[in-house]
Amino acid sequence: VKAHNRSRLQIAVSKDEGKTWQFTPLELDKNGIRDSGYSAITEGPDGSIYVTYSYDDENVMNNIRCATIKKHDDN
Fold it and tell me: Which of 24, 53, 57, 58 has its CA 20 to 30 A from that of 15?
């Protein structure tokens, strides 16, 4: 079985302790990369969020990215 259309990688953010959630797509490579998966997320000591994911179904083990989301003090 092969899954299709795994390119819509999103992150959900709650600013009210989980009562409501805002979903935001993470922008993937604009050069035609379609598939993503094996994602992981962690918070750094400064509050930044780090998201790692593999991409490009043909070469998934060699293509890994890390996106950083910086913490803002405002709501």
Answer: 53
